[in-house]
Amino acid sequence: MADKYNDFISNDIISRTKTIEWLFYQASTEGTVFGAYGHFSTYHNDKIIDTYPRERYLKETIIVLNYINSELNNKLFLVENKYSIADIAMFPWIIWIINFYNIEDVIDMSIYSNITDWVARCCARPETIKGLDTYHYLNIKNNQ
Prior knowledge:
Layout: H1 2-5, H2 13-43, H3 52-71, H4 85-99, H5 113-124, H6 126-134
């Protein structure tokens, strides 16, 4: 879609490549690690006696958060300091691990100020607000 409408992805080869790298990172790492953490800590927390899966994916989640936070150092957005398809793919997972997987019960998210500031910038966009409000995404909570 970004290519079709020539929006949210740069035509500059270096910036375009960085954007695509982030999309691969989201699909191969952020989404799978955060999803696994959520599976073991939220959906099946009471069914799994062994603490290994929860502990492993919590550690992996911390590694991913550290990486994203470091990459956002002195940046407004992931690529070119411009909102892109990479941001669109990545920032909702941060909201999800906070609001639904209750990550703040085990991780102090304030140490990831680059991430929390970035998510706030992404969420402040009028188009993003409209999309998030349509599905009540910011109000989804897990009350476990």
